[in-house]
Design the sequence.
């Protein structure tokens, strides 16, 4: 996708450099977010980044753009509130397995249902990294950690399957070791009108010693590479997408699992936004005379 | 007890309390509203009060209305007329009949044995079930017939009843309205065909009130909703919770007219955070809930405080803890609201006393939140929230919106590393910095729940932390300067002084009127703002008063504890009630009169 742009990735750099561990998968996501904004020719003041709390959230210091680093698990409601107040602003939410699928899972699945026009990026490292390596909802069953020394009893949560079944209209997965693909998915997610979810597999080099870069590299393949089938993958087929979302192990698919282009977004369905963003409404002289009729 | 009128007087006019009672699903609330609108059309003032259990069918619901020719501040404890639609209503409410009161009951289904022998009240048995059956109407219409009977005896013109039905049922189809009119007419006819010589209560056109069209019959919840609409909210997010839900309902119904977006969220946590998101983007927003929902919202309060993104919460109290008594009233959440959320940060907490204050204070809450960029909590309770009263239309034309400072950078204001949204220097002695919103060029900043530097970037530096905390409190000091002192009702010096907050004001003012008739003049210091706490006003009053009574709808006297904390004074006379019911004026009067320890009062009464 070649868009002429007069911006550089460095326009999105703040004076601060990330504090992640050397080799952290977050570096790839950080770079991909900035590249995607450059590619879309969005200026720093025209976009909002909403950061959840966790290692991903430490990105808040390192991006030059409007930012909101909210409470743990509550990044999606912040984004939804902003989007209703000013639907002209593109919004990217970044969150981890804990924030999005532990503390904040009800917000995630209700956002899938509502289809607000925001992009949610999951930093998927299957571990609670910032709090030193406890079990995440996305951790493998049996995972041994400080909080589960006897092994996690729960089965792992499947972010892609969850998003697809709850009504998300753009569901994709990337691997932070394949930065160009991740950039491409984020660009498409932002361009998508509706709720877009990009699950990014991101090795935690300190606490997750199973899901490493080599582990992923051996397994990941692109849905568009069309290796196993002669038939092209149909990303508009909900049932096929669900089937595909269950594939995990020796082979891990990447790319756009599901896309529904024509469904109106939450903002499209609000008549109140038809004549402009709420933030631009004049509130200085509201006449409430007609309301008194309700009480007579 | 004396009769409420002298034997020489033929009628007691325009001073009566009636109560309608039956199972949930009997249309008690609707007939209550209808009865209030009849009184309003006569130019009468009124104060309502309803009781209902947390269920949809069965149990017992009741609606009471005290009417008067001047402003009615509180519902009376005793009723003069009880409309009983089932036997349970008799069992529950007959103890509340005033001496010489009447019970209008459905003689088809309530046996005569249900009533006490030698009771002080009198009976009007009406075959309500037969009348609705003859009209081929549903049983639910019995209340309309009963109202026809009551207003017939009270001497109200039938046209006023019809006009009120048209007003209450304007959203219903014509057939239902016609049916209601037929039923009310039949009840009315019954009263004319069965005259009662000793029915002394009358209501008639109030000559003291020449401009009926300037009056509204409105609840605290509706007044708060209207205040918020006038204040320019364009976003509301919430999750239903009794007794706050009618705020949500009213705003929901006005979305299109005022261009407001209302979002029924998955939970209160989401609601509060969405509102903060909307405020951050530059839109006034509100959420409302009760204690349980506010428990879930608490973390967001601190988020609003540290990011300096304004917020307005409405908390409508009901008795806790936990699910508690969902449909009853209480003032148990004062200290909770003052202290909710981790860490130290300033907030403004205000507790309106009546529907007028609910409207104006809500409007003001938004100005304060935005001007000082901090959370504001409007604290109400079930009594205020769900008890409509007749009041004057709100005077709103002169209300001014203050949005606080907004930074609109010029073209040359190129700022390499973003805008110093959280700076502190000599240019902002108030601690408040202008806000920007996404989309504003050169206004980029980070709203950060971590402690942060001037740009919003995370900072754990000791000096910075101290500066930021001090600056956030400096804003509060500034806000305090413009917050009005508490109002003293009644004479400056009085034999008896009450101190209260929130919705107990009405009962106290009503009690003060009764005490005055007994020769005891009283005054009331009412606290609208609880944070910042008006310590000097309270101290001064305590120092200049001799008989002080604290009145609160809670068990532990939370205002009393605050007064002790802020002034060092302990008030020992406490009128506390925490059974889920409001404090009635009669109870306040009795407490004062029966305060045997207080020799001074005994002396005054002699």
Sequence:
């Amino acid at each position: 996708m070649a868009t002429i742009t007069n911006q550089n990735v460095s326009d999105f750099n703040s004076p601060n450099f990330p504090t992640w561990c050397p080799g952290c998968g977050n570096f790839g996501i950080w770079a991909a977010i900035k590249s995607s904004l450059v590619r879309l020719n969005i200026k720093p003041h025209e976009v909002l980044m909403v950061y959840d709390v966790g290692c991903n959230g430490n990105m808040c210091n390192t991006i030059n753009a409007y930012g909101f680093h909210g409470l743990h698990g509550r990044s999606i409601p912040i984004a939804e509130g902003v989007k209703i107040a000013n639907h002209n602003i593109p919004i990217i939410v970044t969150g981890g397995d804990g924030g999005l699928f532990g503390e904040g899972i009800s917000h995630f699945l209700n956002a899938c249902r509502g289809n607000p026009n925001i992009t949610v990026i999951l930093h998927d490292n299957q571990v609670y990294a910032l709090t030193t390596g406890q079990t995440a909802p996305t951790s493998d069953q049996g995972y041994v950690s400080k909080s589960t020394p006897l092994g996690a009893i729960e089965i792992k949560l499947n972010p892609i399957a969850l998003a697809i079944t709850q009504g998300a209209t753009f569901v994709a997965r990337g691997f932070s070791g394949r930065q160009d693909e991740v950039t491409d998915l984020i660009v498409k997610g932002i361009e998508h009108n509706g709720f877009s979810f990009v699950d990014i597999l991101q090795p935690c080099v300190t606490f997750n010693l199973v899901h490493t870069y080599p582990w992923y590299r051996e397994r990941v393949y692109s849905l568009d590479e069309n290796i196993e089938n002669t038939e092209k993958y149909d990303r508009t087929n909900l049932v096929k997408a669900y089937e595909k979302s269950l594939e995990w192990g020796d082979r891990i698919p990447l790319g756009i699992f599901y896309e529904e282009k024509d469904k109106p977004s939450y903002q499209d369905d609000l008549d109140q936004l038809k004549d402009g963003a709420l933030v631009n409404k004049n509130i200085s002289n509201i006449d409430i005379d007609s309301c008194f009729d309700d009480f007579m | 007890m004396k009769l409420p009128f002298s034997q020489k007087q033929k009628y007691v006019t325009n001073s009566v309390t009636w109560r309608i009672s039956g199972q949930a699903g009997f249309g008690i609330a609707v007939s209550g509203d209808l009865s209030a609108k009849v009184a309003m059309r006569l130019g009468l003032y009124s104060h309502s009060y309803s009781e209902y259990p947390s269920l949809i069918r069965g149990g017992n619901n009741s609606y009471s209305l005290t009417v008067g020719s001047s402003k009615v501040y509180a519902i009376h404890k005793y009723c003069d007329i009880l409309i009983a639609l089932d036997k349970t209503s008799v069992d529950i409410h007959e103890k509340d009949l005033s001496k010489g009161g009447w019970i209008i009951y459905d003689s088809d289904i309530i046996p005569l044995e249900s009533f006490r022998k030698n009771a002080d009240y009198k009976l009007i048995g009406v075959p309500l079930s037969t009348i609705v059956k003859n009209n081929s109407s549903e049983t639910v219409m019995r209340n309309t017939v009963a109202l026809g009977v009551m207003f017939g005896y009270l001497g109200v013109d039938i046209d006023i009843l019809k006009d009120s039905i048209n007003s209450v049922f304007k959203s219903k189809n014509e057939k239902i309205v016609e049916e209601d009119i037929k039923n009310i007419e039949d009840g009315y006819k019954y009263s004319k065909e069965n005259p009662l010589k000793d029915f002394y209560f009358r209501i008639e056109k109030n000559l003291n009130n020449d401009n009926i069209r300037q009056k509204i019959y409105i609840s605290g919840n509706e007044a708060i909703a209207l205040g918020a609409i006038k204040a320019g909210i364009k976003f509301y997010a919430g999750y239903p919770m009794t007794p706050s839900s009618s705020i949500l309902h009213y705003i929901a119904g006005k979305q299109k007219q005022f261009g407001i977006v209302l979002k029924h969220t998955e939970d209160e946590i989401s609601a509060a955070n969405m509102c903060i998101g909307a405020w951050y983007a530059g839109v006034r927003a509100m959420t409302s809930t009760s204690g349980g929902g506010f428990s879930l919202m608490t973390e967001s309060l601190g988020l609003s405080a540290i990011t300096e993104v304004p917020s307005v919460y409405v908390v409508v109290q009901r008795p806790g803890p936990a699910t508690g008594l969902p449909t009853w009233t209480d003032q148990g959440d004062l200290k909770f609201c003052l202290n909710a959320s981790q860490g130290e940060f300033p907030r403004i907490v205000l507790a309106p006393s009546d529907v007028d204050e609910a409207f104006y204070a809500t409007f003001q809450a938004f100005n304060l939140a935005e001007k000082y960029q901090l959370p504001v909590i409007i604290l109400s309770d079930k009594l205020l929230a769900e008890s409509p009263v007749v009041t004057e239309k709100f005077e709103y034309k002169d209300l001014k919106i203050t949005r606080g400072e907004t930074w609109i950078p010029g073209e040359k204001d190129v700022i390499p590393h973003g805008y110093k949204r959280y700076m502190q220097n000599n240019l902002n002695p108030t601690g408040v910095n202008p806000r920007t919103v996404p989309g504003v060029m050169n206004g980029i900043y980070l709203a950060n729940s971590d402690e942060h530097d001037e740009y919003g970037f995370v900072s754990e530096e000791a000096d910075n932390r101290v500066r930021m905390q001090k600056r956030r409190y400096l804003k509060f000091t500034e806000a305090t300067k413009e917050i009005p002192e508490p109002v003293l009702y009644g004479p400056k010096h009085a034999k008896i002084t009450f101190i209260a907050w929130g919705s107990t004001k009405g009962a106290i003012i009503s009690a003060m009127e009764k005490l005055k008739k007994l020769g005891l003049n009283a005054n009331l210091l009412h606290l609208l703002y609880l944070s910042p706490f008006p310590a000097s006003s309270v101290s001064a009053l305590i120092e200049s008063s001799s008989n002080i009574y604290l009145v609160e709808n809670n068990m532990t006297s939370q205002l009393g504890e605050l007064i002790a904390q802020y002034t060092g004074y302990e008030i020992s006379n406490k009128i506390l009630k925490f059974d889920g019911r409001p404090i009635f004026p009669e109870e306040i009067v009795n407490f004062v009169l029966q305060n045997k320890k207080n020799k001074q009062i005994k002396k005054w009464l002699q």
